[in-house]
Amino acid sequence: MADELVHYDVVGGTATITLDSPHNRNALSAQLRRELSESLDKARSDDAVRVIVLTHTGPVFCAGMDLKEARGAGAGDQGVNEFPKILEQLWTSPKPVVARLAGPARAGGIGMVAATDIAVAVHEATFAFSEVRIGVVPAVISLTVLPRLTARAAHELFLTGDTFDAKRAVEIGLLNSAVPAAELDSEVARYVKALALGGPKALAATKELLSKPRPATPSEGFEAMNKLSAGFFASEEGQEGITAFAQKRKPNWVPES
Fold this sequence. Notes:
The protein is of the alpha/beta class. The protein folds into 2 domains: 6-195, 2-enoyl-CoA Hydratase, Chain A, domain 1 (Alpha-Beta Complex); 213-247, no CATH class. It has helices spanning 30-45, 67-70, 83-92, 108-115, 139-145, 151-160, 166-171, 184-196, 200-211, 218-234, 236-246, and strands at residues 6-11, 14-19, 51-56, 97-101, 105-106, 118-122, 126-128, 164-165, 177-179. The strands form 2 sheets. It has a 6-stranded mixed beta sheet, sandwiched between helices. Strand 2 (14-19), helix 1 and strand 3 (51-56) form a beta-alpha-beta unit. 35% of the residues are buried. InterPro entries: ClpP/crotonase-like_dom_sf, Enoyl-CoA_hydra/iso, Enoyl-CoA_hydra_C, Enoyl-CoA_Hydratase/Isomerase. It comes from Amycolatopsis regifaucium. Belongs to the enoyl-CoA hydratase/isomerase family.
């Protein structure tokens, strides 16, 4: 049996999912896709998990689809057919997902970065939508990437396939933060700690809210949003948070330090 290419570990309410296929730059091979999807399912369904961190071994976060497996396969047999499920798992996870990049991402790897809630990379990380340069289209990843990027940047980078750095990735909305390599883990830990302070149900509902289309005017949305807000104020989780605030203590959902 082949060694696993994705490792799963839970410590203190944080599930860390690690891509470990450095021999092919963590390309999205059939085995890696399968194990990554299984790990995401596990993290999403575990009540003990509050935050998910997606990271990697080796110098590259993810090089995109495994082109060796794609070569010679018909449209119905391409591995990209399984990729929407992974992007959907990341995008709709009720638990916040943080991407930790100690190196570059390309193509489908950027699609995964865009599907997470928070993305942090080292200054040296580079990015490229390299699809057009091998005669394919960044179609599937466009569904997670385009909501993040400014329109001008998306047109430029999708059409040229040019490489861009982490500073540019922050400027156009792909990354939240770019830091020196020595500060990567502390920056990720800062976000994880902040996310774990939120109520689990409130975080899940807020993620859903962020993904919904905006009403044409605030007036069209007030009734539904007021119902959602009042329901959470009166909920068990909301009442625990309000009581904890009054008693100057942490709510019962905050993991022990």
